[in-house]
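A further point concerns the way the authors explain their paired sequence and structure data. The central task, working out the C-alpha cells from the amino acid sequence alone, is never made concrete. I therefore recommend that a typical entry be quoted early in the introduction. An entry of this sort, consisting of the sequence and the corresponding C-alpha cells, reads as follows:
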Amino acid sequence: MTEYVSLFETGLGMGAVVASEQGIRRVYLPHDNTLGTFARDGLDRMPASELTDMVAGMLMQYFKGERQQFDTTPVDISLAGQFRLHVLRLIRSIPYGVVRSYGEVARLAGSPGAARAVGAAMASNPVPIVIPCHRVVAANGRLTGYSAPGGLELKKYLLQMEGVEFKGELICQEK
C-alpha cells in the first residue's frame, strides 16, 4: 500500500499527516522531538499527496487558533473493530469547543456502561484532531487520558484554544 506524508510546523513543534489512497491514516501531533521520530519511521522520505498537503495546512491553521472543519476529511481507519469505529465516528461529530464525557459517548454508542471501553477506543485513535478525542473528558469535568505527546497539558491547551473555559483543572461547561 502506498503511503503519503506531509509535515507541518506549529509553535509546538513539527507534526505529520500520513495517508493512504483511502484517506488519512495517522496524525503525528507536534512536539519537541518529532524530527527524530519522523526520520526513524522513514516519514521524511515519503512523498506528499494533495490530501496530506491539504490536511497539514488545515492543522497548521488549527494550531494558530483558526477553526477548521475536519468532519468531511476522508480517514482510513478500516482496520478498527466495529465498536471502536462506532465510537470514533461519534467522537468525530463532537463540535469544535464542545466536550462530552466518556459516559455520554458510551450512551450514544448504545453501551451505557462502557465508558472504559470508550477510553480504550480513544487511546488507539490514530488521527487526533481530525477525530477530536481531546473533546472527551471525565463526567466531573476533569481531564483524563490523553496519550498524545504533551499528554493532559496538550489536551487542556487544545480545549482552551477552542474556547473551553476552565476553573482550575475542571472544565466549566453549562449543560
